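ARCHIVE CARD
CATEGORY: sequence design from structure
SOURCE FIELD: tokenized fold
FIELD CONTENT:
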């Protein structure tokens, strides 16, 4: 589902950013976004706003340059129980927007 979102935070160079992007896929706790043309890296915390709702998300993956996922990121909400998308989702889904991050950073 394609929704307009606003992102803000600090990029890898320590500069504040505020950009618009679009969702590609949604889950209750995460999303894949496209149009993210600022330097981010996995593990960073960013703010995301969709409509009038906002929350903090952790970047779980960043698309590599020169691949079909260039300028895309995967994000996962870090505020338990927060749902900002404002649209109903199908009951059955696979959440792929935090799996790699959780597995590699579990201790």
């Amino acid at each position: 589902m394609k929704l307009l979102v606003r992102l803000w935070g600090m990029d890898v160079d320590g500069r504040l950013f505020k950009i618009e992007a679009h969702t590609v896929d949604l889950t209750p706790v995460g999303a894949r976004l496209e149009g993210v043309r600022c330097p981010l890296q996995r593990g960073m915390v960013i703010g995301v706003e969709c409509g009038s709702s906002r929350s903090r998300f952790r970047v779980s993956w960043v698309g590599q340059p020169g691949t079909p996922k260039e300028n895309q990121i995967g994000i996962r909400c870090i505020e338990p129980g927060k749902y900002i998308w404002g649209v109903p989702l199908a009951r059955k889904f696979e959440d792929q927007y935090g799996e790699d991050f959780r597995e590699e950073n579990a201790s």
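CARD ANNOTATION: Residues 100-107 have pLDDT under 50 and may be disordered. The beta strands are 4-10, 16-26, 30-34, 45-50, 53-62, 72-77.
SHELF: design records, drawer C
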